[in-house]
Inverse folding.
């Protein structure tokens, strides 16, 4: 009996060794600690959700066979050089088949450079600084638009009003993404004839938001545009109220769509406008998740919160990668040649997903995606721009603090 | 002119906030020569105490101030007794390493339990302000400013007028002699650290209504406390108030008249100049 068991065990282990790999190893370096730790963990959640969805159907289907997805995450600690090291480790030590992008322009900038060197396609859904697209990379893709274009919807939401604002102030944190958002605000203010009366970038470490905004208040702009991440957005709202500064409109490049913004700021979050690329009520559909609504509902079931657009963009990127693999009939282990094919395919095809149409430009930016503006109304996020997808009218001017 | 006065007021108020959370740092340094690199974490814990009491049981942040004080007192006492007392006789670098380790441990435990979420407390009086001769004064900041005076007044009284204070001062001046006179030095250290932690926790709870909280917020506060205490004089308690207000006013004026971008740089340039020319602080009373 024992001999038979040993023989069985041995033959099984030989069999196992001979079988080709049954799963796609997909690596990702993303901020899980540090200043982008929270935002980065959203990206991780999005990929995890995607992988679970795919695996619950048996895996990625290639030529009738299914291969599961195994995700490997490393923490880049919100630090670009750590991120680059982690991608190197994923490629050379863990020998992953594919990569997915992390969070934040500075980190992804460094990480994608390593991926490019080894010919790994990297689709990011949470980095959009223009610089990322100006390097002539062939393996870098982004499901988001460029940072300067992302905020277009915000400006147009105000500019297309009948009683449109005449003046605006623009402030923002002096890091890559948010400073570009400020440039975008400026660019579109100029285009729409809104006069910029104040423009200033400040360091992330700034303690005294009150003095900064007091200075802006003295110039009395109709609208305040802020290049922000969540932390900056929250601090700005707190300061605006403290110094009793009520512009007729306030818009952020990022932050208010993260659920914590409404949860903790409560009534103070009311009326705030934010740039967005995706909301669950858009009429988008595609493979894997079905409609935008389906994606959001499933997400809610798993995490108890609605996904924000960065999460959708990240999962959308993962779906695009999956589509390429399926279309090309690539199986693990994925070779360098396969990866080059994937990059080529991604450049050439238009992909329909729950996240909307994805069409990568030569520089890797997604050009099929319109920039949206959303507004917080009665504690809910409503799409207010563009006209054809909006589900509420922009409330303007905002009620002053003292009358709320 | 109105803008100038407003900037001045902003600076003084933020200076009071700086002073409130730097006093404990100064106390601990003055008595034990320990630069507590986990100082910001004590503040963070105080602020989170107030956040959780508010979120879970709707306790007003101002009512959680004493709770934060008591919890941080106990926490500080235990840390000193079981950890820092072990390295206090060793070269200063050991206490840096230990407190830096504490900073990492506390921050990462907080991340583990409370996640990276940015949090904030919004009460009915959040952002409330009053107008004085055309100058806007935010209520919650003003309260913390007053609290800073109370904290520093309390410390001053404690050190100058009580037996415990005399024992603390004796220990900080000459440990050996204090020991000969029957002072239990280790206990004094533990009590000092506990008091330092408690007032920092109190400051943390009192700033919670107007700042954004997250587990990693501490380090920035430690850096500012360091600047404030160097400005005012290391170990000289009222110096925290002077250093805080000077720093706050300089920052506010820089933001208002020059550029927000260089306000942070100015802080460090100031620190640098002071460390070279007047390492005992502006009043020259530090050590």
């Amino acid at each position: 009996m024992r001999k038979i068991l040993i023989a069985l065990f041995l033959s099984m282990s030989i069999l196992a060794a001979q079988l080709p790999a049954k799963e796609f190893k997909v690596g990702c370096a993303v901020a899980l600690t540090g200043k982008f730790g929270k935002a980065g963990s959203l990206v991780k959640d999005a990929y995890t959700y995607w992988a679970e969805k795919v695996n619950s159907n048996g895996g990625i289907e290639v030529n009738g066979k299914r291969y599961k997805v195994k995700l490997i995450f490393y923490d880049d600690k919100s630090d670009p050089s750590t991120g680059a090291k982690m991608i190197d480790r994923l490629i050379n030590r863990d020998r992953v088949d594919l990569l997915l992008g992390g969070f934040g322009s500075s980190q992804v900038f460094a990480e994608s450079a390593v991926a490019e060197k080894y010919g790994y396609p990297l689709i990011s859904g949470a980095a959009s600084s223009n610089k990322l697209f100006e390097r002539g990379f062939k393996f870098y893709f982004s499901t988001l638009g460029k940072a300067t274009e992302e905020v277009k919807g915000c400006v147009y939401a105000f500019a297309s009003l009948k009683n449109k604002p005449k003046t605006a102030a623009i402030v923002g944190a002096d890091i890559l993404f948010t400073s570009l958002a400020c440039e975008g605000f400026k660019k579109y203010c100029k285009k729409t004839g809104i006069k910029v009366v104040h423009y200033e970038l400040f360091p992330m470490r700034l303690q005294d938001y009150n003095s900064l905004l007091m200075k802006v208040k003295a110039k009395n702009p109709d609208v305040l545009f802020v290049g922000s991440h969540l932390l900056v957005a929250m601090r700005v709202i707190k300061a605006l109220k403290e110094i009793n500064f009520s512009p007729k409109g306030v818009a952020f490049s990022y932050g208010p769509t993260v659920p914590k913004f409404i949860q903790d700021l409560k009534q103070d979050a009311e009326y705030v406008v934010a740039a967005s690329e995706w909301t669950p009520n858009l009429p988008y559909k595609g493979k894997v998740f079905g409609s935008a609504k389906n994606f959001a509902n499933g997400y809610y079931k798993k995490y108890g919160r609605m996904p924000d657009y960065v999460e959708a963009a990240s999962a959308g990127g993962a779906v695009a990668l999956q589509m390429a693999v399926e279309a090309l009939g690539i199986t693990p282990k994925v070779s360098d040649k396969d990866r080059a094919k994937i990059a080529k395919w991604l450049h050439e095809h238009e992909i329909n997903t729950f996240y909307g149409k994805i069409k990568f430009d030569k520089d890797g930016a997604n050009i099929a995606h319109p920039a949206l503006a959303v507004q917080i109304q009665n504690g809910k996020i409503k799409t207010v721009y563009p006209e054809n997808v909006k589900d509420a009218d922009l409330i303007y001017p905002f009620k002053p603090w003292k009358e709320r | 002119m109105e803008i100038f006065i407003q900037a001045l007021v902003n600076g003084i108020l933020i200076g009071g906030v700086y002073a409130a959370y730097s006093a404990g740092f100064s106390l601990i340094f003055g008595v034990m020569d320990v630069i507590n690199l986990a100082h910001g974490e004590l503040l963070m814990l105080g602020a989170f105490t107030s956040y959780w009491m508010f979120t879970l049981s709707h306790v007003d942040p101002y009512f959680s101030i004493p709770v934060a004080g008591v919890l941080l007192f106990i926490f500080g006492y235990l840390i000193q007794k079981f950890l820092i007392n072990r390295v206090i006789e060793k070269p200063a670098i050991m206490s840096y390493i230990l407190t830096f380790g504490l900073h990492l441990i506390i921050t990462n435990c907080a991340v583990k339990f409370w996640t990276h979420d940015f949090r904030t407390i919004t009460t009915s009086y959040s952002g409330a302000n009053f107008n004085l001769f055309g100058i806007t004064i935010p209520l919650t900041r003003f309260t913390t400013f007053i609290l800073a005076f109370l904290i520093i007044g309390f410390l001053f009284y404690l050190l100058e007028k009580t037996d415990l204070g005399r024992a603390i001062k004796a220990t900080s001046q000459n440990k050996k002699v204090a020991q000969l006179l029957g002072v239990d030095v280790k206990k004094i250290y533990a009590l000092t650290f506990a008091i330092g932690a408690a007032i920092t926790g109190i400051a943390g709870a009192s700033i919670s209504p107007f700042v954004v909280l997250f587990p990693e917020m501490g380090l920035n506060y430690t850096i500012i406390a360091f600047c404030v205490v160097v400005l005012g004089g290391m170990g000289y308690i009222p110096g925290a108030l002077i250093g805080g207000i000077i720093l706050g006013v300089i920052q506010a004026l820089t933001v208002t008249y020059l550029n927000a971008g260089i306000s942070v740089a100015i802080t460090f340039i100031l620190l640098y100049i002071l460390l070279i020319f007047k390492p005992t602080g502006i009043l020259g009373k530090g050590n």
In short: The interface with chain B takes residues 32-35, 37-38, 41, 171, 174, 200-203, 205-208, 210-212, 214-215, 218, 230-231, 234-235, 238, 240-244, 260, 264-268, 401 of chain A (CB under 8 Å).
